[in-house]
Specification:
- The chain is 24% helix and 35% strand.
- It contains three helices and seven strands; from the N terminus they run αββββαββαβ.
- The chain has a seven-stranded antiparallel sheet with strand order 2-1-5-6-7-4-3.
- The protein is globular and about 45 Å long.
- The protein starts with 10 loop residues before the first helix and ends in a 12-residue tail after the last strand.
Amino acid sequence: MREGSMARLTPEIKAFLEEQLRPAQRMKFCLYLATVDEQGVPNVVPVGSGQVLDEQTILLADNFMGKTRHNLERNPRAALAVADEGALEGYQLKGHAELVGSGPLLERVRQHMEEACRRFGISPPIVPRAAVVFRVEEVYALRPGPEAGKRVL
């Protein structure tokens, strides 16, 4: 796939992502965002909140991103890893991420975070600084065995 072209998540992959990103009964990290700085030094952070917007877009919240935000402002290339550790199943998504500091997407992540904070008894609630719109370009399998690391989209 050429750089900048979008991949469309299959119904199976989309359902997996929605299940893993669904607010759980307990806090857990199953989503990791990777970026690189100007010198190519990688940075990986756990992300506590994500939503599948459509077959090509994942919405994240910038709650505490420091290096990650700095990296995305200079280089939008990023990767997401979403995993169900118990089932040894997951996907790595590669693409571009855009920081959105106002508008309906920011309001959506703020509402999502407010609901999560209420559910988990976090007070005062965490207020996201920005929405992160991740556009999927490639998808790879994260599972043991012969399919490990193979491109699926």
